[in-house]
Design a protein that fits this description.
five-stranded antiparallel beta sheet; globular; single chain; 159 residues; three-stranded antiparallel beta sheet; alpha+beta; 8 strands
Amino acid sequence: MARVLKILTAPNLILRKKSDMIDFKRIKKNELEKLLKDMEMTMKKNDGVGLAAPQIGKNIRIVVINVKSGTIFMINPKITRKSILKEIGEEGCLSVPDVFGKVKRHKNINCKYFDLSGKEIRLKSEGLLARVIQHELDHLDGILFIDKATDIVTEKKNG
């Protein structure tokens, strides 16, 4: 049964560490599957569109992304191509609550990652999905969106 995990918030130092690659030979598939399901549940319960393992205290290269068709589970993701064209969009982050800012990101990207079975997947993305992938992969390198953002605003929640 999947459970909701605690999300670390800045300035926690785990969020600033570069994450390690997953070695499929050294990790049990059922442990990895449980972690991915827990991350998916955590992301959805917190109304997130993506979640990276450092945000739940694990410096490993795993990302989950919520898309219309379901959840993309990315193990050892890597961007393989970035468009020259960039666009500015508003971003927020579960690890930097109530803070939003404008971030310039590549408009289109190609990436590769492994699924749970260890199969390499190649994905071309644009727009919001490309933005979310870039945001989440930054987490794996210890980078937060506030490091790149302009026009940062803090919104206080009512209540």
